[in-house]
């Protein structure tokens, strides 16, 4: 075999190996979609904010992340599966549970996310939300003004945000919420009604707590 | 003599067109995919159908054309069938009709290819020169086909690819008929020879390398146009590197003078290296494909021409052995498409979930108001659902969301990040197919090692 007959394939081999090496060194093996983050890695607390939309988003996203950690899937996998019944059932099968099991995991995740925000003093006080909320209440002008004049301290004592939201979450039919994800109006109504009912129940419970025991008995309030 | 030169030109053109048709629609496939509402797996049959029939019909057609008396008539008939079928391709209203017309094109094409080998020898009056012209026209056609198809698709339409071919192919009919009655003493002698057996190593190496080369063109074009959403014109411009490098390979071969076997082994190594590099692209920038294509083009130039010459050398009847090389090459193309299409379509489907999750993560964590993200998620969901099985264009989802002036830069950054994720997913989806094609090219070294160590004549 002549030298030329060896040199040509050798040169070709060197050129091929060199090019592949350049591609690998430049990241050719890693040019793939970002891997989803581990949902069990704790996330830093968000900066304090008065923006309710941002706070709600933080609560939901963190709650979904914690639920995903419980279920052993990624946050994105859970979130993408929620709007479709078929995907929900597939995810439930994959995680060895059922639809109510998914709802339980979500409730647990949201509850823990809420506790964390409350513990970190990231939930806005009810008195801060009062003016915004009073505008939305269909009340006569005089009553609206009366609501605005309730001292902040009283509002915050009667309606501690964390306790109201925890009560709302406890009473919330999470499975129904999941099924209504594609019907935003019904979902919003359900959440609003749930929070209002929880706020009333929390205020009532706290008022009753402040009534002296004998009087409470006389009024038939336990 | 001037008439003979003209005949050589139009016959070479006809050979080039028939072999260009093997891959000419590659760049038009995305357009055909959309217009005829097909899926990638189905539309691949526009390529597979043609190459499969050409592979099956090449040897029988060559048997018809073995005689110098029959070659002109068979060639003319083949040219007319090919031209008529090309017109039918252009007018095809459905994918089924298009595939049927492509099959008819291949039947005509098989006759054209087989006849033109004899006719080019008659027109040049020299067996080696005629066969050399025939092989070179085939390499040029196969290398330039996708580029021509891409430019025509971008400039006019995919149908124009087939319309343009009709007059060009028919130009060869008078030249073919004019060669009737032309005799070559060599041919008459050859007809009486015992038929040689096909050169198995050369034909097997041709088949394996054709499979790998088809992958290079077919997959690269799909990656550029469908995966990275570049225009067919840009894709055509990008893949011109392969024919340019293939032409340059002639100079390399002449300078190296290493012989057929060394050229074939070197070519297979270059094609394989280029394909591995295409499977390991570090970015969705077409410039990263240039060096791998240069290697593939050099490999193409070093192998196909010399392997064809080796398969024809000192073997009779010439047309029959020409038929075997065509059958091997196109069987290789079919093998490549049949092996690789399911691999990359399955990978493309499998890439959807990671891509969706990556997109979801970016949207969730984007510094945008929650209401804007919800609107965006709705739009993205629509785009992803509409483009099931293909790489979606996410821009309409962003157009449908009204962002506050302060959020617009975050919106632009998010769109760029999502496009990057899609490009990463698409590029990753092609990796296994490119690597499998590289393995096919490496496999060609085995038969190439058994080639007779004949030095290629300058």
Properties at a glance:
heterodimer, A: 222 residues, mainly alpha, 12 helices, B: 20 helices
Short précis:
The complex is a heterodimer of chains A (222) and B (458). By secondary structure, chain A is mainly α. Chain A is 71% helix and 0% strand.
What features would you describe in this structure?
The complex is a heterodimer of chains A (222) and B (458). By secondary structure, chain A is mainly alpha-helical. Helix content of chain A is 71%, strand content 0%. Chain A has helices at 3-25, 52-71, 75-81, 85-94, 99-119, 126-136, 141-149, 152-158, 161-171, 174-179, 184-210, 213-218. Chain B has 458 residues and is mainly α. In chain B, helix 4 packs antiparallel against helix 5 (95-124). The two termini of chain B are 24 Å apart. In chain B, 59% of the residues are buried. Chains A and B meet through helix 1, helix 2 and helix 3 of A and helix 13, helix 14, helix 16, helix 17 and helix 19 of B.
